[in-house]
Specification:
155 residues; alpha+beta; Metal Binding Protein, Guanine Nucleotide Exchange Factor, Chain A; six-stranded antiparallel sheet; three-stranded antiparallel sheet; 3 helices; 25% strand; oxidoreductase; Met_Sox_Rdtase_MsrB_dom; Met_Sox_Rdtase_MsrB
Length: 155
């Protein structure tokens, strides 16, 4: 289980090694992603709160990266944080995400990216529920939800 101290250590020193890497040109990303996905995943944008696909979705399954198909979160770790975006307590695996300090918008936050394709997902905060106290606040457009029976298909 990751804790806030682990997140800060990764952001400050070194992220866990991903299981694989996917590197595409901006033209290849533009051909593969929708305009909304491109704006969030590649240009570090944010979708509007509360009006996104997975804000109020709690069905079983897995959430994978919309860019590369890597498993990022299990639905069992999703909870209602009233933040306006899907919130999770833990990543699916220690090396599923990478962490980066983000001081944009006059705030100090920790950005979360897919560790395989480096797509921007959202941010993590230390105000989540026990036991770890983490809240991964993630843009819906950066995710696809798979049902428990769906195979994981990485790009």
């Amino acid at each position: 289980m990751l804790r806030w101290v682990d997140v800060l250590k990764y952001a400050r020193y070194s992220n866990p090694e991903p299981p694989r890497r996917l590197v595409l040109t901006e033209a290849e990303w533009a051909a593969q992603l929708t305009p909304a996905q491109l704006a969030v995943l590649r240009q570090r944008g944010t979708e509007p709160p509360y009006r996104n696909t997975y804000c109020r979705t709690y069905e079983p399954g897995r959430y994978v990266c919309a860019g590369c198909g890597s498993v990022l979160f299990e639905a069992a770790t999703k909870y209602h944080a009233i933040s306006g975006w899907p919130s999770f307590t833990q990543p699916a695996a220690k090396n599923a995400l990478s962490y980066h300090f983000d001081d944009g918008h006059n705030m100090q936050r920790v950005e979360v990216r897919c560790n395989v394709c480096a797509g921007h997902l959202g941010h993590v905060f230390p105000d989540g529920p026990a036991p770890a106290g983490l809240r991964y606040c993630i843009n819906s457009v950066s995710l696809h939800r798979l049902s428990p029976d769906d195979p994981v298909e990485s790009h």
